[in-house]
Amino acid sequence: MPKKHSQNVPRTNPTSLTGRGVLAFLVAAILFAGIVGGALYTRSPASAAMSEHSADRVAASSAPADGQPATRAAPEPPPNSASFLPTVPNKTPVPGTAPQGMVWITGGEFSMGAQDPPDMNEVGMQATKDSRPVHRVYVDGFFMDKTDVTNAQFAEFVKATGYITVAEKAPRAEDFPGASPENLVAGGVVFAPPDHAVPLNDHFQWWSYVKGANWRHPTGPKSSVKGKENYPVVQIAYEDAEAYAKWAHKRLPTEAEWEFAARGGLSGKPFVWGDEFRPKGKWMANTYQGHFPNQDSGTDGFTGLAPVEQYAPNGYGLYDMAGNVWQWTSDWYRPDYYAQLAAAGGVARNPQGPNAPFDPAEPKEKKKAHRGGSFLCTDQYCSRYMVGTRGKGEVSTGTNHLGFRCVSTATASATASSPKS
């Protein structure tokens, strides 16, 4: 049975493959009838995968959201909220030696939100909808993992703790009333490209719930992470990422921290490396080339997932802040949160996200924000490799294009041990 998948798939708005999502994919298809607005889930696990694009189609909800208190006046943004002001980094020196595998992110004040895509492509413009208005934010300094958490690092955590991930556990009957027992099997949502071109309005054409898919077997029982120790760990639900972070004496980043770090000191650029998608013809991230979803040419050097550190780091020394795998953040997702912060005026200090999630397409689903895009992002369907754009995913759903990285405050960094970084 499918699991809810993480949103990053659909053409108009893939932001949420809902989790046990595709578990529900099966259960969803068998039991429940339909997909909500481009999201791969309903209370059927399958919906998670679609959410990435579905958000683009859904208008921001008018329901109230909780913003952060403003601390000082900020310049009034113009009506078109794609206007950026310079980043003002903190001058505080690095507080001691960075834990192994982490880098110091200065923090400071910056303009948060998505710039227009350089070619004003319709898919790219859709991807910016829930990343507006651009607003001023301040974050304190922090340490961040240079790379996504790898299979080797996650394996060490599992060996030390005996932890069992969500994808390795059979879905509970009470969570899927009416589902046949034979459909309640452990597994995960997996990208399964068709062998021919298909319309891009039905993500079930390329996502499947696969029995036995989990972090050790990312695309199913016959797959393995052996020899792929330096690849990002995937098929990770939110609680799995949180458990690892706690063990490593770290935490998951807020959206504001993640975006400040991803920008690498730049302001108002569409990509974490600058203005052009391929500066001087150079590939800067693992994304999708060819015809989506049936023909990945791998022109950037990889078809599917890539090991970490295969492309140039950003200005802060962080790798893969665009493409390869989506990354969990600690913020609940709601499309109108930025509007709430902007309406409050001033500069939001260390915003933690809204107090509760809300996705108009699936109002009963609990979703966290995703960042960074994945190897499936393309300007044909999902261009959320653009910095500032947002994804979303139901918390119990992992996929084979969703991972995470951790952060640590200066006070906690002393206890973050090296192999756990």
Write a concise synopsis of the structure shown.
With 421 residues, the protein is α+β, with helices and mostly antiparallel strands. It has helices at 23-30, 51-57, 122-127, 151-161, 238-247, 255-263, 337-344; strands at 3-4, 19-22, 88-89, 102-105, 108-112, 135-139, 142-145, 187-191, 207-211, 290-291, 295-296, 326-332, 348-349, 367-371, 391-394, 402-403, 407-408. The strands form six sheets. The chain has a four-stranded mixed sheet with strand order 3-5-6-13. A four-stranded mixed sheet has the order 15-14-12-16. A three-stranded antiparallel sheet has the order 4-7-17.
Commentary on this structure:
By secondary structure, the protein is α+β, with helices and mostly antiparallel strands. The protein contains 7 helices and 17 strands. The strands form 6 sheets. The protein has a 4-stranded mixed sheet with strand order 3-5-6-13. Strands 15-14-12-16 form a 4-stranded mixed sheet. Strands 4-7-17 form a 3-stranded antiparallel sheet. β10 and β11 form a beta hairpin. The longest helix is centred in the middle third of the chain and has 11 residues. It is globular.
Number of β-strand runs: 17
% residues in beta strands: 5-15%
Low-confidence stretches: 1-16, 24-81, 417-421
Instruction: Please state the overall shape, judged from the principal axes of the Cα atoms.
Output: globular
Oligomer: single chain
Given helix and strand content, the structural type is: alpha+beta
Q: In order across it, which strands form the biggest sheet?
A: 3-5-6-13
Order of helices and strands: EEHHEEEHEEHEEHHEEEHEEEEE
Give the overall average pLDDT. Answer: 83
Q: What's the total helix number?
A: 7
Largest sheet: 4 strands, mixed
**Helical amount:** 10-25%
C-alpha end-to-end distance: 34 Å
Radius of gyration: 20 Å
